[in-house]
Amino acid sequence: MATPPWKRPASKSAAGSKLTPANLAWAKAAAKKAGRRYPNLIDNMAAARRQREQEHRRDHPGLRDGL
């Protein structure tokens, strides 16, 4: 079985990055939709993944998803 995210050390890429205000708002909206007052680790991880994907698409506009 895989190690749960709260028991894994933070990756080097995640250690120095911060969520943008838009992605922070996205995490808060995800928490609210799930009935929580504040975003939890999973909401923040999803927002960070979303942010990395946005940055990748911005940096590599010619690539398609799945390649």
Strand content: under 5%
Q: What does the average pLDDT come to?
A: 87
The sequence of SSEs as H and E is HHH
Low-confidence stretches: none
Q: Could you state the oligomeric state of the chains shown?
A: single chain
Helix/strand class: mainly alpha
What general outline do the C-alpha atoms trace?
A: globular
Q: What is the C-alpha radius of gyration, as a whole number of Å? A: 14 Å
Query: Helical amount among residues, as a percent range?
Result: 40-55%
Distance between the termini: 28 Å
Number of helices: 3
Q: How many β-strand runs? A: 0
Largest sheet: none
In a few lines, what is going on in this structure?
By secondary structure, the chain is mainly α.
Question: How would you sum up this structure, described in words?
Answer:
With 67 residues, this protein is mainly α. The protein has a domain at 18-58. The chain contains 3 helices and no strands. Helix 2 (21-33) crosses helix 3 (41-59). The longest helix has 19 residues, at 41-59. It is globular. The mean pLDDT is 87.
How are the elements arranged and paired?
Elements: H1 12-15, H2 21-33, H3 41-59
Helix pairs in contact: 2-3
Which tags fit this structure?
single chain, 67 residues, mainly alpha, 3 helices
